Amino acid sequence: MPEAMPTRILLADDHHLVRRGVRLILDSEPDLTVVAEAGDGAEAIEAARTHHPDLAILDIAMPRLTGLQAARELSRTQPELRILMLTMYDNEQYFFETLAAGASGYVLKSVADRDLVEACRATMRGEPFLYPGAVNALIRNYLDRVREGQPPPARAITDREEEILKLVAEGHTSQEIADLLVISVKTVERHRANLLQKLGLKDRLELTRYAIRVGLIEP
């Protein structure tokens, strides 16, 4: 019987040292091989188009596009691609957003040497990867919803508004954002006004603080 081909992996993280460490873990396994690397979410989308990996491992907090934004786009354009998130933060909100973005779960960087290989294999088997803290979060969320008799709240802002919020918080001007997203400055300003109104915020500084709080950019 011929041996199964190893799982081809795209690895995206904006820290070169993290990528190198994660790659060492993965490449030491006979059934896993890293075929492409990326330094931000936009590069990850491009690399996935070029290399057609089986599995994408995406850091949540990256410049230009976050791992979550990239995961949403990849889930839409390459539905057969399996996705796993990497993060420094054990945060329930991230965990649920990760699942909503089409990923199978996430691995904490602090225990990547212990959990990452098993997470990759579980994801390729079509199973969600749930570490103990995530299981507790899922159960607590389910019980809260049952108790309150209501579904989880909808996301406050649209994907496009989130893109613009991230770029504003990174210090880009309206003109730069318009050029990056290939839309008019007027459209950028309209989205920005909508964001301030929806989130009840006053200015760029408050938008930036909000972006840090929800994990769109790192402080």
Automatic annotation (TrEMBL):
Domain Response regulatory: 8-124
Molecular function GO terms recorded: DNA binding
InterPro entries with a match to the protein in the record: CheY-like_superfamily, NreC/VraR/RcsB-like_REC, Sig_transdc_resp-reg_C-effctor, Sig_transdc_resp-reg_receiver, Tscrpt_reg_LuxR_C, WalR-like
Domain of life where this protein originates: Bacteria
Chain positions found as 4-aspartylphosphate: 59
Biological processes, Gene Ontology terms: phosphorelay signal transduction system; regulation of DNA-templated transcription
Annotated SMART domains: HTH_LUXR, REC
HTH luxR-type domain span: 150-215
Keyword Amino-acid biosynthesis part of the UniProt annotation: no
Pfam families: GerE, Response_reg
Keywords: DNA-binding, Phosphoprotein, Transcription, Transcription regulation
Full protein name: DNA-binding response regulator
Species of provenance: Streptomyces hawaiiensis
